[in-house]
Design goal:
Layout lengths: L3 E5 L2 E4 H23 L5 H25 L21 H18 L4 H26 L13 E2 L12 E2 L2 H19 L8 H18 L14 H18 L4
Antiparallel strand pairs: 1-2, 3-4
Keywords: Cell membrane, Membrane, Transferase, Transmembrane, Transmembrane helix
Subcellular location: Cell membrane
Family: Belongs to the Lgt family.
Amino acid sequence: MKPILIDIGGLSIYAFGVFMAAAYLLAMAWGMREAGRKGLDRGMVLEFGFYVLIAGLAGSRLFYFLLYPGEFEGSLIRVLTFWDGGLVLIGGGITGAVALMFYLSLKKQDIRAWLDALAPATALGLVVGWMGCMFAGCGYGRPSQVPWAVTYTHPDSLGPLFVSLHPAQLYHALASLVIFIVLLGLRGRLKSKGQVAGLFLMLYAVSTMAVDFFRYEYEAMLWIFSPVQAVSMVLLVVGLALFVHKKA
């Protein structure tokens, strides 16, 4: 793939950064659309969007650092250079959600209604975000000889070079697209506040656990499960609780 889109006179524009910016803007735009549809203050999306972005980036990078500390040996400052790739999206989702709920609590907003409004937007942003990982090489899959396998050859790629790999990032992107479509199709039928958000968390957790079996090997954290899968189990329980706990 192509981790650097443009390199002019030493100025490099990384595909990962471009895709992440696009994912953020697209999620913001769709979030405003859904907020208006639910009678919420659309302008608040612009207010809390910045804080969620900062918290999400910090959480994504921190989670990546905890999983791959060896990549930063001798150059700890690289922890700050997130734009060239190396984020764990589920970690950013958690810290971003915490920042969001803290902000909404301060503003005395209906948290469940907002979570429902932002769930489809989050799924849509994940579609684009995972494509950024595809270009950068982060989140790569296990070695495979399937016909649709990908091979990284660019020296700046984060994935192993010249090895045929499962396109795990593409699997994640397709799963996120399916989740987005499902949420749009069912949001009108789910009347209780929090159910759309709960459904999103459940679908995201299940898809993440499934795709992670095609990812590069982590050291098992819980029996045969990776750290990301272990976190996904927690999200699955939280999503189920939101879905079954009805609130008008």
